[in-house]
Write the structure tokens for this entry.
Amino acid sequence: MINANLYAILAANFPGDKQACAIETDSGEYYTWEDLERGSAMLANLLHDSALPPGSRIAVQVEKSVEALILYLAVLRAGLVYVPLNTAYRASELEHFFGDAQPAIVVCAPGDFVWLSRLAFASGVQQVFTLGSQRDGSLLARAARRSDRFTTVAMGNDDLAAILYTSGTTGRSKGAMLSHGNLSSNAHVLRTFWGWQADDVLLHALPLFHVHGLLVACNGALINGSKMIFHSHFAARRVLADLPRATVFMGVPTFYTRLLAEEGFDARACTKMRLFVSGSAPLLLQTFEDFARVSGHVILERYGMSETLMLVSNPYLGVRIGGTVGVALPGVAVRVSDGSGQPCAPGEIGAIEVKGPNVFSGYWRMPDKTREEFTSDGYFITGDLGKWVVPQPGEPPYLTIVGRSKDLIITGGYNVYPKEVEGFIDRLPQVVESAVIGVPHPDFGEAVTAVVVVRADSAKDEQTIVATLKSQIANFKVPKRVYFVDQLPRNAMGKVQKNLLRERFASA
Ligand code: AMP
């Protein structure tokens, strides 16, 4: 039987020369492919010695480091379940995750050990190790005397590999259960679809606790045996300095706007680059166009989520269309439905639904919620709204995301899609960016409300914005009020936290 353990699949694609550099860090360290194999074997032996029952969860909240990636590989090798946690989470959030995932082992930053281990033990966790970003902490010390050989545990495609907690911009975080088969099928598909090449070098500046940085970026480089340059966090200046040595870069839209604002960023800095990928949040058309003009590269925007990994992508070969997230990936069925399973015609807005080997099996210990989120014919209801656009008759349709269904505003019986209104506001010369939300209104049910960031030298002029919009869009879509803020609240992945804005302006 073929071992479907994701680690076995990744390792089968590591290059023949195990002494070649697999990862280089921004503090000048080099890790070979052998280091990844031996390091993950030592950690897998340590985990294995705890004699945990199959399916035990290992929750990890640590700063980004190569050792943190090796720990992920070790958990896969040992046949256990990896639960990455956003480093921003504090006690009350961690209490929820520990209570929900009931991990057997927690790995945390050394500086958090005292308070976090108390919390973990109170939730029934058996062991707490620490791992710092400078190879410090008890985890590596305990693994140091373990053997550097380990036979990767045999797993089936449906066996659980990871639980990813959704980022929770619309409610309580839920654990998405991802199998070895989900992860490997998506990594294989993206390897071909994005044309990964033998000498690719991935410049990696994303966090490791999220689908984008871990399961798209790292799995993508590892399954192609490609070197990564690891940055501990995104800094435009450092990315600019390393671009001449890289061929692939993946980022959230904010990375691209910051690169564009960085002095010295131009086409010369990108001559070796093959591919820039954007995702996790909508890429503004303006950024897409500015980036092409300044760098000579057309950003490839793709769409995915913790529950489904990547499902739609602009093509590597072929036309990338700004404002769209591209075509359905091979082997993935994507539809825009009217909510009763009937497909919408191109141009019509509906619920984005997906089925395929990339789609998770359900939310951890939430069978009712899982049932609600799948249609009777087995499609996962993403919660995003979108529409198909057909660029040329006879060509595959491209998907445009219109917003989250929970963000949809219903005002006086009319549906308002925030992204459409934001598009008009963002085009005003004085505006940097905007978020459109619905706030409770006695008459309309909800009132369209805009929260806007204006350029430093521009006036915060509500009347002008409202008057301009009135000349451009239907009256019911025009914000009843415009509020000005210095910046929009964003989570670690660059998504605007509309829930916070709705709370803040609820009584406005
Ligand atoms: P997460 O599970 O944290 O990756 O969040 C997934 C959500 O991010 C999706 O359901 C979308 O709402 C949003 N998202 C991901 N990629 C894109 C994209 N390219 N454009 C717009 N929204 C996106």
